[in-house]
Amino acid sequence: MALSAAGLSVLVLAVTSPAAALLSLLAGVVLAGGLTRGSRRILDGAGGIYVLALLVGGLGDAGSEVLLLTAIASILAWDIAENALSVGDHLGRETDTTRLEVVHAAATLVVLTVGAGMVFAIGTAASGGQPITAVVLLLVGVIALVAGLRR
Amino acid sequence: MSSTNRIVLVVGLVSSLTGLCLVALPSVASLVSLSGVARTAPIALVGMLSLLLAARYVAGEISSSKARHDEQQTRSTEFPTPKHRPGYEHPGVAFARRLGGIEWTDRREEDPKERLELRAELRQAARTVLSRTEQWSRTDVETRLDDGTWTENPQAAAFFADDVVPSLSPWHRVRSLCRSEPVFARRARHAVSELASRFDGNDVSPEVSAAAQTSLDDDLTVTTRSFWDGREGAEAREVSTGRTRGVAAAALGAAGLGIVTLRPALFLLTVFGITVYGYARAVSLPTQTVSVTRTVSEAAPDPGQEIEITVSVLNTGDETLADIRVVDGVPTGLIVSEGSPTFTTALRPGKEATFSYSVEAVAGAHTYDPALVVTRDVAGVRKRERLQQSSETTITCQIREHPVSGNGLQQKTTVLPGQAQSRTKGAGVEFHSVREYRHGDPLSRIDWNRKAKTGEFTTVDFREPHLETTLLVVDARAEAYLESATDCTEPVVRQSVTAAYSIASQLLADSTPVGITALSPQPCWLSPGTGDVHRRQLRELLLRESAFSWDTPDGEFDAIAALREINQRASLETQILFISPLCDDEAREAVRRLDAYGYTVSVLSPDPTVSTASTRTCGVGYASLRRQLRLKELRNAGLNVTDWDPSEPFSGVISRE
């Protein structure tokens, strides 16, 4: 399931930015490796490559819809893989976990889609020429928020 | 919340509000029209700040994941795997551990203690083995050991002949770079394999077995209770799984790049990341309201019988639990033979899910540990772990009694009352001595023949027939919890317990008083007695007492103090049967000490080093060799020692006597 999501992210990126798609493909391969080895570190590495792919995509000419879709697919892929690992850790390979994983994947998908929809709506609504000062100030706010919450 | 945190948040709030104002009223923004450095500097600054922060988070994440990894190495935070038994120590581990104590760095020490000790010990063993197998004289053995002509194997020969810290040729030095094992350790392995093969005629390979190595390395958490003991004492705990931390760092990274390059798509990405992160922070864990019920198909099964355990999980709350993981608290002794004691599901309120598995019954009273229940929220951001108490479940399985036939149990331990020769003299049938008549001696014991011949009164003393009491001492120290060298998951203590039960019931059937005690950190004592009630007590004690449980006991144990206590409690006439695998020197010392106290001691020793494999590894070979030497030493000291291969039927061992 994680791999199909990874495949989706590659596909979406391939439409616009070949370099990002390549990175995304690499991340998918690393993800698969992490899953077979059962290593959380490799999985985290794959997550990092996904972020790189997204950034490269963003720096390139990828449109915002494409980028958001890729982000959903990437997060979904990583999330499902991570969840699978954690279930495997807890309960061993022989337990039947289909129900749990399907519920989890569906829930994550819903959360991500709703989030992305909201963000996209904001994006289209505010796509006028906003003053750069406003953007900078908002960004400072966001940074402060994240820094404050992380403690 | 710290004060810096508050300041940061206030600054953020003010800045956001101003930003919003500017968005809402673009005319205000046009009032302050900046240009040049004043325009680009804040942008660059904020971009850099955001990138720096992202980098810091990533670095922090990496180091914390490393720390977590290290912690996992030192403390077992692994989830319990109740399907199996804990790994008992393999008999070959003792040798593997000694070899592990020899390091390359010992070379630098003036006098490497580990190496000298190992060599002295093996040399002692070599003397005994060689003088027994090779018909060499004592001096012959010594010279052959010194010049290395006792064996064909150059490695083994060099172990005794060469220096403790071997001087290496340049070629060996190069080769040693790519090996982790010191030359001395390798030679020790060869010497042991050579000695052990000579001693019992079977080939012993110079390799340390994989089983011994894994038994040395890993320490599985098996029961849910031991998993919980590694943590704080609280009944339930909530943990963040830390899954979304990466998202925040990624969002900040995107923001930094976005502001520097002015790409709107990246801003959207940032907002998306922050949304996901915020959701993950805001989402709350449903209150865990789960009840677990366990039913057992047979509470008092026979050994080897399959029992089906059915566990149902009920959501008693009014919220949907999206992610429930249950690990049932299977007790240590039971092995799951079919199905799995772990279960996952999602439950709506009031719904119930059931799972079942089978375990194979083994002797003992097995009380279930509480089940471990882990619930996570939908996004899997937070989880709650909890030991879920349910009604107590105990499976009691009687010890299977080995049939013991005949009365040749021990040469000195009596089976029938009256067989023993007591130290007191008096009435009886067996002649002891003749003495002067004293007033009051019974008429029947006066030697009338002598009276007729000499006119003197003399009295004949006989040995008094005597009811000898027997005390069974079961060695249940942690050192005795060895698994058998064959692929067996049962600690050898279980064999001792079964043997003790068989012998005790045989003696009780002959109405000989039997008591039992364990040499274990868990005190356990039953004074010698007879009768049905006593027999029942004894059986219950062997079943339920924690000294005989399936768990390896932990904690400090002072064997000498325990023996002293036995000495105080048992009368000197008591015969002691010591049941122990005799795989360490403390056990031998215990026997010697009991003997020194003046008891009549016999030893029954189940052998954990018996291996069905055609060639044994040197770890097991070493253990077996040392054990045989120990048995020999005890026999030389005049004790009656019975060696018992547990794969043989017990009655065979007894009748062999």
Automatic annotation (TrEMBL), chain A:
The chain crosses the membrane at residues 102-126, 132-149. InterPro entries: DUF7519. The keyword Transmembrane helix applies. Keywords: Membrane, Transmembrane, Transmembrane helix. This is Uncharacterized protein.
UniProtKB/TrEMBL annotation, chain B:
Residues 290-343 form the DUF11 domain. Keywords: Membrane, Transmembrane, Transmembrane helix. The chain crosses the membrane at residues 40-59, 247-280. Residues 433-599 form the DUF58 domain. Residues 64-87 are annotated as: Disordered. The keyword Transmembrane applies. The keyword Cytoplasm does not apply. It comes from the Archaea. NCBIfam families: B_ant_repeat. PANTHER family: BLL2464 PROTEIN. This is DUF58 domain-containing protein. It comes from Haloferax elongans ATCC BAA-1513.
